[in-house]
Amino acid sequence: MVRSQIDDDYETKHVNILDEYLPECMVLLRKNGDFPLNGEKSIALYGNGVRKTIKGGTGSGEVNSRYFETIEEAFTKEGYEILTKKYLDNYDKEYEKALKKFKNHILVEILKNPITGIMNSIGAIMNEPEYKINIDSTGDVAIYVLSRVSGEGSDRTFVKGDFLLTDTEKNIILSLARGYKKFMLVLNTGGPVDLSGLEEVENILVLSQLGVNTSKALVDVISGKKYPSGKLTTTWTKSSDYPTIGNFGDSSDTNYKEGIYVGYRYFDTANMEVMFPFGYGLGYTDFNYNVQSVNLVNDEVTVQASVQNIGNFKGKEILELYLSKPNTELDEPYQVLVGFEKSKELAPSETDSITLNFKLSDFTSYYARNATYILDKGDYIVRLGNSSRNTEPCAIINIESRIVVKQVHNKLDEPGFEDVKIDSNLVHPGEGEEDLTNSNLPRFTLDPNCIEKETITYDKVFEIPEEVKQLSKEDKAHLVIGAFNPSGGLASVIGSASTTVAGAAGETATVAGLSPVIMADGPAGLRLASDYYTDRDGNHSTQGSIPISMQQMLPGVIQWVFSLFNPKPPKNAEIKHQYTTAIPIGTAIAQTWNKEFAEICGDIVGTEMGIFNVHLWLAPALNIHRNVLCGRNYEYYSEDPFISGIFAAAVTNGVQKHKNAYVTIKHFAANNQEYNRYGSSSNVSERALREIYLKGFEYCLKRSQPKAVMTSYNLINGVHTSESKELTLDILRNEFDFDGIVMTDWIVASMFTGQVAKYANPSATGVVKATGDIYMPGSKDDYNNILDNLKNKKLSMEELELSASRIYKLAKEVHNNN
Ligand code: BGC
Which Pfam family, giving just one, matches this sequence (predicted)? Predict the structure, then answer.
């Protein structure tokens, strides 16, 4: 079969599979019954997302598909007449004017301070400009598509044109809502925007960024061919509602003083009204649900509930289970998510029965005073609902005295402050008195003996195979450093250092007769170069190492300077192509609350890894949406660690079904801001780390066996995560029982030493001493660093061999398996 034939087969197949599910990622925030349309075929399209539709964020998470159509094109293709061509043409002109100004500004900054200027320019994103264009309100139906993009290298801001709407956007949206018979505001964003002031808008849909068929999926939902059925996995509210207890975006030290009160854990506990709560989303229809039974077997709670479609359109409902723990010595959030299930598609009047379950021992609290995971004594209230602001108690479980489920050691040092405490003894809306003593709820008493208790001993033993011991010290050093081009260059700025597969982020060294292990990015699909050529040294992207959407924001002269460092195709070189499927961004996958879909996404990526010979996918990414401004939140799933862990595990299982296709879960851990990301310390209490920031990784590792873990750029409490033996050996390998590869994130910081630098960069030796296995993307200096420290005895041969042997085994495994 010729290559293009293979391409067509897998691409079409993957797009068709995704199409079935994309509407499940969308969240309907408001509805008045005007949508879906009733056969109308003339439509007025407004907003920056109509022609500049965004399929995903920028940076290493960007994926190069064969094609991408805009929302305007998708409506046209489906036979709609677009009434607003004049407005759209005028908008294009305004946008180009603003972009020119923006690029000039970047250039001036670079001329003022070249290093900082260049660093800040990579990932810089233009805010939506203000403009004056006449709106002639033609037709009966209008859609305003508001888009925002963000990504690697810069955070979002609470300013107009980014998190806030511009005055122009607000005015147009309000006038459309007033002037049109039917109006829908569509949000083509990777995360929240501030929707305050738009109370008159009665139809709002979070389209999100759904990869290759974002636009077609919108047309399907507007026309009524399909229906939205997602719910938010992060709280959407006005900018002034988000707490400022801890800071965000500090260049050196970000203090997570809010402790465990992240996202809904904060809003629900403080009983603060929010615009669109965690877990919230509507459908084209409505549902009723009722608890049928609750049971406790050992420490496993099972809730059986019925769901009925009580509207006139088909749909799917998601039920969510929360747990309120007793406040004892530890203050506890009002509730935490412990389970969820999505119904099958329900026709009007149809009923489904849903089973939700969870184990209490999976939801312990961390008591730092004596380093124990505990279930404290008292009443545990189980709540069922369809958003975090709409839950009702359905059972009470009593624990008579404190159960120590796991004994560990504190490992992560002190952040230098006490976490905030929030009074959670509040009355919640719709629930009346929270005192349930005399309620008729089913009550259970937990038998403490049914919980398996564990004491961690930190004594896991790792074998070094004889054949690794026999290797030369140079070969061993090469194994723990990513394969590098001795001549250097900018090939790995944003992860495209592989010369075996063009555009793949990196690979392991070809020493000792080993073939390379190829690593390529995600999470929104498999990131490869779509155009490449081959020469004596291998395969090279013709598109440079900076993702295309990021290049577009750079001044022409800077693009030219960067291009000087890129490998050049020889004259008459054949330009070849590799196309992969852009899947929805991480947040959108989680918004489906459909684990099966997450596994399907993994399956698609795993298949394409097989086609292009990639072994390690650098995804899924499961950092917590600690702050809505983090530029890379779009890659991550949620503000909640349980959802994050469940979705990362489902994606992992989908990928790893395929022979020789493995995942790398990242970024371990507390990687929650982009500003000065190489050198900022996330200062976090041991409790918040263990209950929030490490928890998703732990849940993922319980439900799947990811082959690799990538450490983060940031430090935790003043120690680089990649150099923390406590994090890598004690917690990841011993406590979480992880047996795979630990790699660093792509450390290219030494190129930019002019950055704010309170903390020194991590070194290859530091990483290996912490039991990290490979320092990526690697350079000659890093390789020398290992050999020098071996010589001066700062690194022992055994330390080096331990890491080298894990890479050696992986390289053997992926190539022998063929
Ligand atoms: C990103 C990682 C990515 C790596 C390789 C880094 O800049 O933080 O998420 O996997 O590059 O591209």
Answer: Glyco_hydro_3_C
Residue 14 CA to ligand 1 center (angstroms) comes to 25
**Distance (Å, rounded) from C-alpha 773 to C-alpha 811?**
13
Split at pLDDT 50, 70, 90, the class of 521 is very high
606: CA distance to ligand 1 center in Å?
19
Q: Check if 395 has its Cβ closer than 6 Å to any atom of ligand 1.
A: no
Return the ligand 1 atom nearest residue 506 CA: 5
Which residue has its alpha carbon closest to ligand 1 atom 8? 745
pLDDT for 61 equals 86
| C-alpha span between 381 and 263 (Å, rounded) | 20
Enter the DSSP assignment of 243. -
H-assigned helices in 492-594: 548-551, 556-564, 586-591
Average pLDDT value for the chain = 93
430, two tokens: 């719709």
Q: Please name every residue paired with 720 in a beta bridge, in sequence order, or none if there are none.
A: 715
CB 598 within 8 A of CB 17: no
Contact status, residue 236 vs residue 267, Cβ threshold 8 Å = no
Q: For residue 87, which amino acid is it?
A: Y
For each of the domains in the chain, give its residue range(s) and CATH number, in order of start.
264-455 (2.60.40.10), 466-530+583-817 (3.20.20.300)
Conformational region of residue 211, where left means phi above 0, alpha means psi within -120 to 50, and beta covers everything else: left
- Whether residue 563 contacts residue 544, with contact meaning beta carbons closer than 8 Å, is answered with yes
Q: Calculate the CA 741 to chain-centre distance.
A: 21
Q: What is the DSSP letter of 669?
A: T
For strand 443-445 and strand 253-255, is the pairing parallel, antiparallel, or unpaired? unpaired
Tell which residue, 673, 683, 751, 656, has the closest CA to residue 713: 673
Measured in Å, residue 171 CA sits from the centre of ligand 1 at 39
The secondary structure of residue 676, as a DSSP letter, is T
List beta partners, residue 527. 521
* Cα angle value 150/699/419 (rounded, 5°): 70
- Whether ligand 1 lies within 6 angstroms of the CB of 521 is answered as yes
- What's the gap in Å between 717 CA and the centre of ligand 1? 22
Over range 211-221, report the average pLDDT: 98
Distance in Å, CA 339 to ligand 1 centroid: 31
The CA distances from residue 520 to 41, 130, 525, 529, 806, in Å, are 42, 38, 10, 10, 19
- Residue 433: what pLDDT? 46
CB atoms near residue 138 (< 10 Å): 13
